[in-house]
Specification:
This protein is mainly alpha-helical and about 260 residues long. It has a two-stranded antiparallel sheet with strand order 1-2.
């Protein structure tokens, strides 16, 4: 894989120049730098997915040098800078990306997630709404779920629940929305709905440690002690190091 990527990078460098005859001299001039920027951006994304953020940043800087108006390079750079802890630089790159391509719903959604993580919940919600206004946006259930998480962070649980429901209207089996709304309804002691959401979640994904603990509490509240114990045993068996397992072990055993 490393060799293939290196060869691709070399191809980018070779493709970025051509030799021209100018009078008696032969000089190299840029050619198809836009394509080179796209390839380096993809290389940067690939390296970022591997967690190799230093090399990813190098590739993305090269892409921006080749075409400083190529918005995806800016968006990818924002992601890398976020991962290495440069929040100021990441925000700058997100804003540059959106200035270059204000109609990119995916970037609006990603910027919303970034802003919400930094407590800018009102501005984040605007970004999610902008993404959702694009009828051609490919993953609206994710944006609705992100908006719900952000509303929850802002303390607006009613709005959060409505956002999760909007996500599930679009995709009734969207796991993250099902998980989030199950936790939210459990906090309201709405146990029957919590059970229903957890059952739907289990049809598409395995219960996480958090959801196993929620499931145990739900079944105990609804009077099914055997089911509650099964969830607890699974939590302790499969996720013994999780915070939820530690929390469970600190509690007195049920009679």
């Amino acid at each position: 894989m490393t060799r293939r990527l290196a060869l691709m990078a070399a191809t980018v460098l070779l493709a970025s120049c051509v030799t021209e005859q100018v009078g008696d001299a032969r000089i190299q001039t840029p050619a198809n730098l836009g394509e080179a920027a796209q390839i380096n951006t993809q290389l940067g994304v690939d390296y970022a997915r591997q967690g190799r953020f230093d090399i990813a940043q190098e590739k993305l800087l090269k892409a921006i040098e080749q075409d400083d108006r190529y918005a995806p390079a800016r968006t990818a750079m924002a992601y890398v800078l976020t991962q290495i802890g440069d929040a100021e630089g990441a925000e700058r790159e997100y804003r540059k990306a959106l200035a270059l391509d204000p109609n990119d719903a995916g970037t609006h959604n990603n910027f919303g997630v970034f802003l919400c993580a930094r407590g800018k919940t009102a501005e984040a919600d605007k970004e999610f709404r902008t993404a959702l206004a694009d009828r051609n946006y490919g993953t609206p259930a994710a944006a609705w779920t992100n908006a719900g998480v952000c509303a929850q962070k802002a303390g607006d649980t009613a709005r959060a629940e409505e956002n999760f429901r909007q996500a599930l209207k679009i995709d009734p089996e969207f796991p993250d929305a099902l998980a989030r709304i199950a936790v939210l309804t459990a906090r309201k002691s709405d146990w029957l709905r919590t059970r229903a959401f957890l059952q739907r979640y289990e049809r598409v994904a395995a219960l996480t440690p958090e959801l196993l603990l929620v499931a145990a509490r739900t079944e105990r509240a609804l009077g099914d002690e055997a089911a509650a114990r099964r969830h607890e045993q699974k939590l302790l068996r499969e996720f013994p190091e999780s915070d939820q397992a530690v929390q469970l072990q600190k509690k007195p055993a049920a009679p």
